[in-house]
């Protein structure tokens, strides 16, 4: 992409690095001696610093520098990764984010405070650095033979071998020889590629890891060997080698081996090739703006629709050739649709991972010891869905931590382990993904919910409610049973937002709870926002789509129901009374009804409602189109879709329609 | 009337309920023949139908409703003018029903007069001004206000 704002690219890259950094820090907190998260954190910091100053984010770069230094010392074992240290690093990470995203509003004092704490911690946590220094000295200077060959396109990617060599020189006495045995004849020479490898005889007091660090950013693409050279190699020799001019380009290896210490000939070609294979892993990814994926999805959606029209047009045709081409197009467009949807799928790990920090910070703020566990992180969901699920899940987890989990003393008194648990899980169930948030806290207090609901006139006093009905009340706007307000929750906003967001995603929420045993909230979500499996029905002359996940069954409307109970719209479905709505009344249809009316039974949560339609036309997979702002306040519909003949059909909003059916049921109970 | 509203502009003129209306030609995406329409139960009368415009679901507006004109059934000349307007800072594509589409023409700012407060058949709030073209009067509707006021 030419013309893209490099600053923006840096911001995006930095955002990802900061996420990596945070994950690494949280891992490190769990396992302070682990090398891998430490390296990840260090690499992330180093890149942010480097790219930051390259793109003019000086403040962020210089701030990051301090943190990077601290992490460098941790890697060398001079500093311990204490909880306090991780805490500072997390705060610093947040500050870096502000410095990058919104430098104008960054609080310089807060940044200085973090740095002051960092300095203090580095001082106290320094594991007798001086002692360590002595130890190194005792080990004395060692001589290493370092050979490296950069990837052919390393120069294009901005790697400067001279800087690597300079860095090596800084470490100690270095004798550098260029290995030119791979330089091709002039006519084959690719001028933008790096054909030269280097051998450096380095005598240094630094350990091997320091030498490796020089290559930390190119290590994946570089063939690198570092081996100790026995003390017998006289230093003057390497000095001589260094002063000698680089060998002229030559195909003959012998010409080169003459200049390097004779111990080791040039790396055998076979090995080099094998290492090259390892160095280029198959994963090759590109970054694509999300809008482009949306555009692609739109186009594919239109292709699917266009194909459906084509299929309809030729259904009467006897031309076998056209038919076979149409089938070919069907195969291709279905494949394209599946691939496009696959591109948008992201493992929920990327969503769950964010909550580690949330739980950590909140548990410290609230003084509760809480562990967050996860399962099914590899389950995939549409990227847009993942983004929109963030806020609802934050609310739910906050509630669990704040209201659900008891303080440690209460837990012990109740015979539970003092450490609270929150478990996040995701799994596939048919075409839906079930996401569960479970805690082992005190559970929902039925009496208090009931008292609160009666106080707010949400339910009549003494109303008989099932647990599920009672628990749904917590999603009512302004409903909060928290006795004391905390900064975390208890303002009575939150759960209704959760409900609204999940409804908007065509999802469902179920709550179950055991007193003293904990609460479990299960979100049922469609795999993607873009495509819906629906049941196509006809009401009057209009066609409507009912989301298939909500459909339980279709039955015929018994004619006697119509005659006997003109005002009582209830069906007896295997012994259970199910209220039904005549969609023709709801939609104001004037067209005369069909003789045999059908009822589609739909459910939302544990509520069931029958919808009376004129005809059930069949199932229909289609692309969801949102309605414009002009139809924002129209009830009963959640979107629209385009049918095979090119006309528009509306998609019913299950949650709203079920609610309307419930109003009817309440009227019956009241009467 | 401010200057910005009475400057010259390229306009698409169309017939609606016996009057000539002019809409900014730059906002016009395309002009379509009549396509199948889907009624939206419970929607405001102005935008009671949806149409499919190249795979996008677009509301179809009958401006005659806002101007109190008689809604005659479509004829062979009836067209749908697809325009893009800014609603709450969000570009929104809307189809406008027209009895007949005339031409793209330049309307000079000097010929545009403010809306007379009296002697008008319709709500002056919905009109930016009246232009003159030869002996004909051309109504310049305020499309955004038509959709945002009820």
List the helices and strands and how they pair.
The complex is a heterodimer of chains A (671) and B (150).
Chain A: H1 6-30, H2 35-54, H3 58-75, H4 83-101, H5 108-125, H6 129-139, E1 142-149, H7 161-171, E2 172-179, E3 197-204, H8 208-214, E4 223-229, H9 235-243, H10 253-257, H11 269-279, H12 290-314, H13 320-344, E5 345-347, H14 349-366, E6 370-375, E7 380-382, H15 383-404, H16 408-413, E8 420-429, E9 432-439, H17 446-455, H18 467-472, H19 495-504, E10 508-514, E11 518-526, E12 531-539, E13 542-547, E14 551-556, H20 559-564, E15 570-573, E16 576-582, H21 583-586, E17 598-604, E18 607-613, E19 615-623, E20 637-642, E21 648-652, H22 654-670
Parallel strand pairs in A: 6-8, 13-21, 16-18
Antiparallel strand pairs in A: 1-3, 1-4, 2-3, 5-7, 8-9, 9-11, 10-11, 12-13, 12-19, 14-17, 15-16, 17-18, 20-21
Helix pairs in contact in A: 1-2, 1-4, 1-14, 2-3, 3-4, 3-5, 4-5, 12-13, 14-15, 15-19
Chain B: E1 9-16, E2 19-24, E3 28-33, E4 38-39, E5 49-53, E6 56-61, H1 63-66, E7 79-87, E8 90-98, E9 100-107, E10 127-133, E11 136-141, H2 143-148
Parallel strand pairs in B: 2-11, 6-8
Antiparallel strand pairs in B: 1-2, 1-9, 3-7, 4-5, 5-6, 7-8, 10-11
What would you note in describing this structure?
The complex is a heterodimer of chains A (about 675) and B (about 150). Chain A is α+β, with helices and mostly antiparallel strands. Chain A has 22 helices and 21 strands. Chain A is flat, with a radius of gyration of 33 Å. With about 150 residues, chain B is mainly β. Chain B has one domain: OB fold (Dihydrolipoamide Acetyltransferase, E2P), CATH 2.40.50.180. Chain B is about 5% helix and about 50% strand. Chain B contains 2 helices and 11 strands; from the N terminus they run ββββββαβββββα. The longest helix of chain B has 6 residues, at about 145-150. The two termini of chain B are about 20 Å apart. The interface of A and B includes residues 301, 625, 635, 647 and 648 of A.
